[in-house]
Sequence to fold (305 residues):
Amino acid sequence: MTPMTTSDLPLKRLGRGKVRDIYEVDAERLLLVATDRISAFDVIMAEPVPFKGAVLTQISAWWFRQLEGVVRHHMITASAAEIVDAVPALKVHRAEIAGRAMLCQRTTVVPVECVIRGYISGSAWKEYAARGTLAGEALAKGLRESDRLDTPIFSPATKAESGHDENITIAQMRKIAGDEATAELERLARAVYAKGAEIAEARGIIIADTKFEFGRDASGKLILIDEVMTPDSSRFWPKDLYAPGRGQPSFDKQPLRDYLDGERKAGRWNGDAPAPALPRAVIEATEKRYLELYQRLTGAALRVD
Fold:
């Protein structure tokens, strides 16, 4: 599989995110193409990570299938053969989209990230350690880094086009989405996280936190969209190595973050774009993390066809 940093398909491109290129198929359908672009500290690297886009797409597709009966979702298919059958203009681009493309139902996106935290880590831990709060709201005293929370916290955030998303209170979310939608989004996010955490834990993986996106379909119903419980949208920890009171090893781009941290501390990078060139060893270590997570979670090696 040839690594891809950008796609060029014979469809109208509606947008390009840090990882995904979004294409319009028609008034009812979109094509999401996950490239092998990778970012850290809000900077996109020049070098791609092989198989990353396929891992993100196929993990999401796997989760959508596991979540049938829990939540409605936007996936139509992530099979290249079925995509080509549905969109004949993509026939000559089958090799390009294989594994990394998902045909989806089009929705009106709710402009709030629905974050569920089962453990306190990352930005939540930083705020709690400094002020004892999350998004300005007080949490229980005496928590340690990576502690499991008695009840997972629903912690919404505003969606940012660039830079970090910003944690907001549920009261602030109600002003954006309305009372009824906020209550339903929290219910759905909690249900999806509970099912995902149960499935992952049986496979020796802790989902410490994750974020979901939702949209309204043509009938106005809220459905799950975008990526779901991937290493880009979630914090995955190996259960057998879990020990609260410190940061945890994770199945994500930690080798990349560690390398960039070293470059900043050594004064060779100021944290702005462009990022320093990535050594082959860092790319390979990151690729290995993504592929290992896919296999441990789904029980099968990644297949791209």
Notes: Helices lie at 52-66, 80-86, 94-97, 122-131, 170-177, 179-202, 254-265, 280-298. The chain has a mean pLDDT of 94. The radius of gyration is 19 Å. The longest strand covers residues 205-216.
